[in-house]
Amino acid sequence: MNPSTAATYQQIDKSVSESLEQxxxxxKASELSETLPLFSAFNKVLAQAIISPINVxxxxxxxxxxxxxxxQSLDAEALKTPEGIRLKIIGETFAGHPFVPTEPLxxxxxxxxxxxxxxxxxxxxDTVVPKENCSFNETMQSIVISDTKIKTGDNRRxxxxxxxxxxxxxxxxxxxxxxxxGLIASLGIAKVSVMRPLKVAYFSTGDEILxxxxxxxxxxxxxxxRYTVFGxxxxxxxxxxxxxxxxxxxxQLKAAYLQALAKADCIITSGGVSVGEAxxxxxxxxxxxxxxxxxTPLGGVEFWRIAMRPGRPMAFGLLPQYTSNIDVDLDxxxxxxxxxxxxxxxxxxxxxxxxxMVTFMIFVKAALEKMQGAISNSSRxxxxxxxxxxxxxxxxxEYQRAFLSLKNQQNYxxxxxxxxxxxxxxxxxxxxxxxxxxxxxxxxxxxxVQVMLLD
Length: 455
Description:
Radius of gyration: 31 Å
CATH class of the largest domain: Alpha Beta
């Protein structure tokens, strides 16, 4: 990061890929973790891999309600009847109650045991016929298998076929989804080591911004960005520090940054990053990057023009959490050295609501995932057929709101609503963004395009 560029825009638009690469090469992964009970670990990121202490399932078991038997019976000519293969019932077993024969079985061929889903497969029994695929003869206490397609090993779950003892069940960096929580519980593990949630401070800027509860006034709008950013940060499992709406006043803006720097692992703002707007923002950020004792800048923030739509203007960089010219009470338990401060990533997002969401999804989400130590799940694209023509000039990446649907086993995508960067209503109706790369021009109906699903 070159602090000398902090007060100006670069003259050539940066590409999306170049911008993302610079951001990801700048932010660092956290090393702070905590141990939590499983009920408190949802949506957290694993700090250590989960090694399975047992086999799952721990024994061969039935995948069906039916009858367990030895597969050799399928080839025994003596058991065949015009209706199917006849097997004598010699017992039953239920889930949690394994079958224990009262005496050694003279043969396994020609006999079966009534079994329920999840019940342990008795020794020597390797196949299950569903009860609906056979007929029961109460007088003879037997069944006749009418299913001619059944094969040895059918409808049986093997010991360890889901998870094997001493092998990884979940990788470090995986997010704990509902399925992951259930998987860990199936191993008998009650507590897990997870990454400490990132603390992210956020505030909106601008004299025209109203907070909820403020009286309407001519020329002003209610702030939506704080709530969309709050939702997106919450989805990532972050601890959100809401600093409200800050007017275009240098001292109030600086105070908000100082408060954020004292508390947060990352700072996000919206508004005040377009060319010619709020020049004191750039000057103030450059001031915060200086260390008066060393007379040298620490970090710095660059203001970028990115070749994308929506979301062209953006600021990104690092600011020191503690410097000698900032009057902040240090946490007494902190190891921070005021002369060698921790560097905090700062994202200055555009002010338009849709531009905020798109730049967050492309840049901020990927950075926060890296800082969380998470396996990245950002910006995964799928292919779809465009249901209409799309106008596009080469030279920039465009993200257009759309609706993805499945027709005849094929993905189709249709643009929806007004594509203006301030029109949030069309974002609420979309389930995806059509991603048109910088080299692409106009899209014709029926052309293949790349699509990014919305959470």
